[in-house]
Amino acid sequence: MRILYTILWSFLFSFMTAYVISNMNQVDFSMLQVILMTAIFTVAVILLGEVGLKEEEA
Question: DSSP labels for 33-46?
């Protein structure tokens, strides 16, 4: 379930980022760009959560 939420939030952030940047540059919105950014954000967050960041046991 944790990975599903990560994919959902990555998609939402990617969509928002691509929409804002495409409007600022006055170019057409590209859904392919959103999907690619979603994949990159998802992989980065999963790697950080599983490999990079470890909680210390008290």
Answer: HHHHHHHHHHHHHH
